[in-house]
């Protein structure tokens, strides 16, 4: 099969498909108009998106580097009280007075409940082992 025969086969197939499409459009005019309108709206949206995003953007180049004359300050904000610290030096070890607000010692009941839950998990694991 040479190139001319392949081209003729493709040409015949396209002619049949075009004839089928013409018949469909003649039989279903409302659907055809609806589909064509939808395709046109989608193409119009794509073109508008490309036009709005494709605008030339000018690059701003600063000749002089920004030099800070003072420390950065956090603007007043209700979420940042006066005692808000931007940074702090950390200590190697916490003091007991610093730990107390964040740590609550579990009660004996909570410890027992945790122990029972752990024992149950261990039992299930050991039962599942061959």
Helical residue percent? 55-70%
Q: How many individual helices? A: 4
Query: What best-fitting shape do the alpha-carbon axes yield?
Result: flat
Unreliable sequence segments:
none
Number of strands: 0
* String of helices and strands: HHHH
What fraction of the residues are assigned to beta strands by DSSP? Answer: under 5%
Radius of gyration: 38 Å
Describe the structure.
With 130 residues, the protein is mainly alpha-helical. The chain has four helices and no strands. It is flat.
Strand and helix layout:
Elements: H1 3-27, H2 29-53, H3 96-99, H4 108-128
Main features:
0% strand; 130 residues; single chain; 4 helices; flat; mainly alpha
Provide a concise account of the structure shown:
It is built from four helices and no strands.
């Amino acid at each position: 099969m040479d190139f001319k025969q392949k081209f003729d086969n493709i040409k015949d197939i396209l002619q049949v498909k075009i004839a089928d499409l013409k018949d469909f459009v003649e039989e279903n005019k409302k659907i055809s108009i609806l589909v064509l309108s939808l395709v046109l709206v989608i193409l119009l949206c794509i073109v508008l998106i490309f036009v709005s995003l494709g605008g030339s953007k000018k690059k701003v180049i600063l000749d002089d580097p920004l030099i800070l004359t003072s420390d950065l300050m956090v603007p007043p904000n209700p979420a940042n009280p006066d005692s808000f610290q931007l940074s702090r030096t950390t200590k190697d070890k916490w003091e007991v007075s610093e730990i107390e607000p964040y740590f609550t010692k579990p009660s004996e009941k909570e410890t027992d409940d945790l122990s029972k839950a752990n024992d149950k998990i261990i039992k299930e694991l050991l039962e599942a082992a061959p």
